[in-house]
Design goal:
single chain; Rossmann fold; about 35% helix; globular
């Protein structure tokens, strides 16, 4: 029996678009793609497109889905209307593909839990701008798929993998490659769920920190570290 899951995304967010592309490529077809159409969605989409400026942009949601994949819009993923839609669908899993912080009334709906692909290596860097913060703080870059709970990026870890960083790469290319890595890890996670082998390892809450969007000045320093070869974790 196919794995029944719903994909939550901010409307046409590049993160969700690349994740959906990879999931479909690997044979995982969502029971529903639930897009949030809101000012926040527009703001986050624009912000992320700037982060991957000059890089290939994933296909749109409309280009990826067909008549066999239901697609619906809501004004807010935490709204009662969203809860009603998801309860009707009855997903085993909720997959987050770039969303606002999701509240417990939504997280509690799926039987097996809600999972997120965080573009950072947990528990070291939680929150926003993880690629930029990793460069600024001279830390390894990678992606982590984890269960979602009421705290930010704090749920048990299912899968985690570093992203190899090569000399001469730009920040924008690293962020774009992170989209693909996160989508690949999510596909691997759904395969584990399908096999009944998705185990979560609790995080140590005393390790790491939760960060907000990196300020422009610190982002410039992070990019300079990468460009000037002062990053300590190059693979070549």
């Amino acid at each position: 029996m196919p794995l029944r899951f719903a994909l939550l995304v901010l409307r046409d967010h590049p993160y969700g678009r690349e994740m959906l592309r990879i999931l479909l490529e690997r044979g995982f077809r969502p029971a529903l793609v639930l897009e949030e159409a809101s000012p926040l969605a527009d703001e986050e989409r624009a912000k992320f497109l700037a982060r991957i400026a000059g890089q290939p942009i994933p296909p749109t949601i409309a280009e990826l889905v067909d008549d066999r994949i239901p697609r619906q819009e809501v004004g807010n993923h935490n709204a009662p209307s969203c809860k009603e839609v998801l309860e009707t669908i009855g997903p085993k899993i909720l997959v987050l593909g770039g969303t606002r912080i999701i509240r417990s009334q939504i997280l509690d709906i799926p039987q097996a839990g809600t999972v997120n692909a965080h573009p950072g290596l947990l528990p070291g860097l939680r929150g926003s701008s993880s690629v930029a913060w990793a460069l600024y703080k001279d830390l390894p870059i990678g992606s982590t798929v984890h269960y979602v709970n009421s705290e930010i990026d704090a749920g048990p870890i299912i899968l985690q993998r570093p992203l190899p960083v090569h000399r001469g790469e730009t920040y924008e290319r690293l962020v774009r490659r992170m989209l693909t890595l996160s989508g690949e890890l999510m596909a691997e996670t759904l395969a584990l769920f399908a096999e009944g082998r998705a185990q979560g390892i609790p995080q140590d809450s005393s390790i790491g920190e939760t960060l907000r969007v990196i300020p422009a000045g610190l982002l410039a320093q992070a990019k300079a570290r990468l460009k000037e070869g002062r990053y300590s974790h190059f693979v070549d």
